[in-house]
Amino acid sequence: MVKVPTTHGHDRCAAADAVVADAGQLPLPWADASPRLGIVRRLQAGWVQQRAKALLAHAHQRSAYYRRHHAGWQPADGWAALPPVHKADLMVHFDDWVTDPRITLPAVRAFVADPQRIGTDFLGRYAVWSSSGTTGEPGLFLHDGQALATYATLVAGRGDAGRLGAGLWQQMALRGGPAVLLVATQGHYAGISFWQRQARLRPGLAAPLHQLSVTRPLPELIEDLNRLAPIFLSSYPSMLSELAEAQGDGRLHIRPALLWAGGEALADAARQRIEQAFEAPLGCDYGSSEMLVIACECAQHHLHVNDDWVLLEPVDEAGRPVPPGRASHSVLISNWANRVQPFIRYDLGDSITVATSPCPCGDPRPTITVQGRCDDVLQLAGGAGQPVRLTPMTVATVVEQAVGRLRFQVRQSAADTVSLRLALADSTQPGVDKAAALAALRSLLDEQGLRRVRLRFDPQAPQAEAGSGKLRQVVRDCKARDSTRSAQAHRP
Ligand SMILES: [Zn+2]
């Protein structure tokens, strides 16, 4: 059954309301409100129309960027005539993009430069999340109170609690133990920032919250997890796979009631292994720094789009619509919940496929599959020859933090050799960036007991995949796969 979403009272001004009233019907891709839709879907179609029109009116009134970008557009032209927006262009025009004139790019940059402020509110009212994405330059994203309340409602109502029911929470309360988030904790990333904000606002909620940094060595993390005995554990699929292996061979012995995965693609085989190792269900959702809760998983493991709060338009290389059943080149998203930094037909860069038939679970919202980050786990030889694995999110986050850019590539060519490629052509300080990235990677390798692993700089530019055009940031070359496989064979 579809849950009716909580509305949070739009902070609309009278002028914006007038524009909305004048705009008439705005032909959106799905919100046709036809009788073939059930009553709840017809209601939702109406809300979506209102939310879309209200956001457009607000953007045209308060954002100089959107006024220029949409100049000449009329509602009668239709939604699809609105030109898409791209992160690089929006970041150049940041101060014109945001709808609160007190927000400036230098001020937001200064805010995210301070790790003490992770999870706190900028100007006392906005969450700020930096990056991420798998291509291009990092972005800085602000979310207002209505947006944050919407994300919290979606997480609680359609995510873990919605799917797994109240029984799970009762079990968690009875068994006790903390909730642990094991992610990149050193930057203002959406996951850790939203988590810390929720913990700050709701100190008495459910289980106590702990965070662990994925950049720490695996044996230390295992020790901490054994000590903490989490009832809930959330991390990247690649890290949960590592932990499942440790649970299988007895190094790790925890009994979480629920596991949660995000940030990377989750393969069915990996899900099965993780669920079997921990004897607990694994949930996942699909979100980004631009819209935290784009789709939530149902009991059939299908991702249902929260299409009453976000519009997804799959597109091909030329920006043309891609029909259900075919993988898109990218996807344009529009986030109806956030007013402070409007995302209207924003090119997210992810490839998605919309399902051609309704989900057997009965929820009429469309389902998608996402071709997410598909980077490799690095498998390196430790000091005593033992294999040490580094998850792609860990490696990518360390480099991204060091140089503030996403166009780089860490490649493993042998069990003891790693190289770094950086797109230095667009850097204003190539020497500094190169030194910072190498130092950050060296420090990570040393921390993980990989002092013998050679790290070299490869002057080639990062290479995008021939087929998809996507840039994989962390790659293990075939030769390295073979040499590591033989190293693993010698594992005691
Ligand atoms: Zn379903």
What does this structure look like?
The protein is of the alpha/beta class and 492 residues long. The protein has 15 helices and 20 strands. The protein folds into three domains: 14-147 and 290-371, Rossmann fold (3-Layer(aba) Sandwich), CATH 3.40.50.12780; 164-286, Rossmann fold (3-Layer(aba) Sandwich); 378-489, GMP Synthetase, Chain A, domain 3, CATH 3.30.300. It has helices spanning 14-23, 39-62, 64-69, 87-92, 94-97, 105-112, 145-158, 160-175, 190-201, 218-228, 237-248, 268-278, 392-403, 430-447, 478-489, and strands at 127-130, 140-143, 179-183, 209-213, 232-235, 258-261, 282-286, 295-297, 303-305, 310-315, 330-335, 346-347, 351-354, 367-371, 378-381, 387-390, 408-414, 417-422, 454-457, 474-476. It has a nine-stranded mixed sheet with strand order 4-3-5-6-7-8-9-14-13, sandwiched between helices. A four-stranded mixed sheet has the order 19-18-17-20. Strand 18, helix 14 and strand 19 (454-457) form a beta-alpha-beta unit. Helix 7 (145-158) packs across helix 8 (160-175). Zinc ion binds next to loops.
Shape: globular
Number of β-strand runs:
20
Unreliable sequence segments: 1-24, 479-492
Secondary structural class: alpha/beta
Note the total helix count. Answer: 15
The distinct bound ligands, ions and cofactors come out as:
zinc ion
Helix content: 25-40%
**Share in β-strands:** 15-25%
Classified by CATH, the class of the largest domain is Alpha Beta
Q: What Rg do the Cα atoms give? A: 23 Å
What oligomerization state is this entry in?
A: single chain
Distance between the termini: 51 Å
Q: Provide the CATH architecture of the largest domain.
A: 3-Layer(aba) Sandwich
